[in-house]
Amino acid sequence: MSDLALFRRRLLQNPRQMSAIAPSSRALARAMAKGLGPGTGRVVEFGPGTGSLTRAILEAGVAPENLTLFELDPHFADHLRAAFPGATLHLTGADTAADHVAAGVGAVVSGLPLLSMPDAVCHAIVSAAFRMLAPGAPFIQFTYGPKPPVPAETIAELGLTVETGPKVWANLPPARVYRFRKN
């Protein structure tokens, strides 16, 4: 089944879990993976869905054995296992990622709809990311909204800096990339 067909099927079956009307475009995926490569080390991806961002991470030069995916949807997980056999996949929430991955991660890339989640859930997810990340390593997130996708309270509490990245018009809907860091 194609990525688009799988995405549409899951959207129709579980619209509350999906926050997009289409998988991330190649342009958005490339913008999210910008700066990643063989020297990044271990990379964790939250909410890979059909694998659009996963593909771009690997194309940037991250080795499959250095990529760990966290996906809640079992249908997407089956698809990801078949499409990316060298990556490690956990069928569990991103908020538990630090329980499964040792600290020192080079980047966390997230396709999760943080703005549509309760603040407490978003805080748990972002906190888990920063428990794994090496100092200065980025938490990379996109959003369709006009402001950063992490609540200001979480940014302040965790002592994060925010870098506003490019607006990607070649995505449905257009999205903006943000990079969060803690030094």
Keyword list:
single chain; 183 residues; alpha/beta; Rossmann fold; 6 helices; 7 strands
Protein architecture, described:
With 183 residues, the chain is α/β, with parallel strands linked by helices. It has one domain: Rossmann fold (3-Layer(aba) Sandwich). The chain contains 6 helices and 7 strands. A 7-stranded mixed β-sheet has the order 3-2-1-4-5-7-6, sandwiched between helices. The protein is globular, with a radius of gyration of 15 Å. The protein starts with a helix and ends with a strand. The model has no long low-confidence stretch (mean pLDDT 90).
Summarize the structure.
The protein is 32% helix and 19% strand. It is of the alpha/beta class.
Secondary structure elements and pairings:
Blueprint: H1 3-13, H2 26-33, E1 43-46, H3 52-59, E2 67-70, H4 74-83, E3 88-90, E4 107-110, H5 119-132, E5 139-143, H6 152-158, E6 161-168, E7 175-181
Parallel strand pairs: 1-2, 1-4, 2-3, 4-5
Antiparallel strand pairs: 5-7, 6-7
Helix pairs in contact: 2-3
